Every structure is written in C-alpha cells, then in structure tokens.
TrEMBL record:
CDD domains: fer2. Keywords: Iron, Metal-binding, Oxidoreductase. Pfam families: Fer2, Fer2_2. This is 2Fe-2S iron-sulfur cluster-binding protein. The lineage of its organism: Bacteria, Pseudomonadati, Pseudomonadota, Alphaproteobacteria, Hyphomicrobiales. It comes from Mesorhizobium liriopis. Gene3D superfamilies: 3.10.20.30, [2Fe-2S]-binding domain. Residues 1-75 form the 2Fe-2S ferredoxin-type domain. It comes from the Bacteria.
Amino acid sequence: MRFTINDKPVEAEFDPRTSLLDLLRDHLGLTGSKKGCNQGACGACTVLVDGERINSCLALAVQYQGRAITTVEGLGQTGSLHPLQQAFVEHDGFQCGYCTPGQLCSAIGMAGEAARGVPSVVTADLGDETVTLSHDELRERMSGNLCRCGAYNGIIDAITETFAADGSQKGDAGARKAA
C-alpha cells in the first residue's frame, strides 16, 4: 500500500487490520504519536490526514492509502522547529511530553478548522465565516487532547501566540494557512 507520510512517499505491506497508529509506530518507526488509551479518548495519537486531525488509534491504515499523513516528526524542518513547537518550549506547554505530539498535531488541525469557519459548541456566531480563537474556543476545541500533567495553561498560551484569529501562523504574515 502507498502513502505520503511527512511529505515522503511510503510503501508498506501489512495486515489490513492494522491501525494507522500501529503502522506509523511499529512498521515505519515513527514513534512520535503515542498509544495512550487506544480508544480515541486521550488524543495522544492525533495525526493530520490531508490537514485534518484524526485519532490514529481508531483508524485502519488501509483507509488512508494515497492520502497525505503528517505526524509530529513532519511538523518542523531539519534544524528548526515548527513555530508551534517553539511556542510550546517558550510557554512550558509540556511537562512529561507524552501528550505533546498529539497536542501539536491537534492544534494545527484545529487552527485550520477555525480558519475555514468550522464552529464549535462555544462559537458565538454560527454564521461567521471565520472563528476567533478566543480562550474558550481554544479550550473547547482542544478538549479531546488530555494532559495528565495539567500543562493546559502553557498549551493554550502557546497556541494563542502561534495562531492568529484567521488561522495564519506567526512569522508568516498570513501567507500560509495553519494546516
């Protein structure tokens, strides 16, 4: 089966019952995404598929043939961190770090959703084409990613610093969307 993982073509042979998470970790050696609950409840396994966040522990790898998959290993570039990764460092957005890969991928996917105007439970105006990433919006949208250490304030501060209300990244002058 063929995939594009972190902008690289990948061909793999595996049991069709293999989850995307197990393909990434056990077959391809991409161990950044974590197996926390293996039930889709903690978000530690979050990856991006075509820019949208998914829980890779709940997804069969065969479902994502031919799609663009981005793991935490694919966020930064050689020698430099993604702006959100750098903000996590600056704002103490992690303690043990176990949830961090899922938090990062989820936040990037979430910013893309907000930029496209996808509402959440707390979105004030469902008719808006863009969503302002307020404190309440961020907490609601990131609620599927658990941090057992309780680093939520640093996580929210890092996301707030990195993404503008329109989903653009800091340092990009709005030229590139978040996901």
